[in-house]
Amino acid sequence: MKSVCLIVQQIYDIDPRVRRKAEALVAAGHTVDVLALRSADGKKNYSLSGVNVRTIALGKKRGSLARYFFEYIAFFLWILFRAPLQMQRRGYEVIDVNTLPDFLIFAPVIARWMGAKLILDMHEITPEFYMSKYRMAESSWAVRVLKILEKISIDFADHVITVNEPIEDLLTRRGLPRSKSTVMMNAVDEDPFLNSGPSLVPERCDREKFVMMYHGTINRIYGIDIAIEAFALVKEEMPGAELWILGSGSEEAALAGLIQERGLGSKVKLLGRVPLAEIPKWLSQCDVGVLPTRRDIFLDFAFPNKLPEYIVMGKAVIVSRLKAIRHYFGESALAYFEPNNPSDLSQQMVRMYRDPQLRTRLAIRAKEEYTPIRWSLMKQRYLTLIDEMMGIAGPPTAKTSPPANTTMIAQ
Length: 411
What we know:
The protein has two domains: 3-187 and 374-389, Rossmann fold (3-Layer(aba) Sandwich), CATH 3.40.50.2000; 191-371, Glycogen Phosphorylase B (Rossmann fold, 3-Layer(aba) Sandwich). It is built from 15 helices and 14 strands. It has helices at 16-27, 65-90, 109-113, 126-134, 141-156, 165-173, 191-194, 224-234, 252-261, 279-283, 306-312, 323-328, 342-354, 356-370, 375-389; strands at 3-11, 31-37, 45-48, 51-56, 94-98, 117-122, 159-162, 181-183, 210-215, 241-246, 268-272, 288-291, 316-320, 335-337. Helix 4 (126-134) runs antiparallel to helix 5 (141-156) and helix 8 packs across helix 13 (342-354).
């Protein structure tokens, strides 16, 4: 039995990507520790689904660059001292470091000297993240520093994981050797969605309704206000249609005000956060998923975690025409609209409302195109990489997703 450590500056319980990896390792027979942040009411040390979690009390109060820097440095120093202590006890073969920040890969340097191999799992592309969040110019000194940190972090890691092929291509242009790169998509673990048990979620009584649904974090980048504005444009053309919004976040109050301003109080429902275990039951009650993510230099590379959830539930999805999504799904799989454009989104809403057969065709095709990147394949790809890093198989080699969908419009 081999030992693996995962490091993430996040609350472990709510990070689906890290949880999927950790639980896959446990199921494969490895001993797994996670070093992470502690929730407000959480325990210092605990076990979850066979994963040993060790935490630090460091609240996430981000907003300013100074606060980001403070939290990054505090967590970095904790890992710098904690990782070698854990290494002495556990003898890790591999340490999997999850960004942000990129330079977190240097925190387990002592554990590396003690024999651990280091994986850098790049959840985000940091320069573009800060360009988007703080409206930084690409030519600014801060972005140039972030690109330098990204490059030396990649060079220091023994292997790098990226979340999709467009991001891998971008990082390759910035110096990432494909020989040390693996793409592991944010695919959904299908079992909870296809085999959910009894639920407290109320069933829809009126099957004549047409329910569009968004579920996830409620903040500006996800464009929920755009969906509300689009619905307001065509509400008279869609009698019986409703928009259900599941989740919580910083934009809840603003969205509630917008709903009232547009006269949609009876048609748009802010349902709040729902338990993760109940999400499959909620999704089963919608007719169409709506993912109206805004587009910018960072978000164009985004592949929403929620998209596979609608797909595995057999739902048609209206989605922003973003580069990363179009890389994997063609026009016959998803109902695309131009990002940041309520008018274009409203036309897709009406189109989906009027054509049930189209919804069915889209859902079937999306499932077909999702098959090469589903979790069962991503999980095996990750476990194979871990085995290779441990010396169980040959040296790590580049592993990427199957070729992009060739039916799409050229970029």
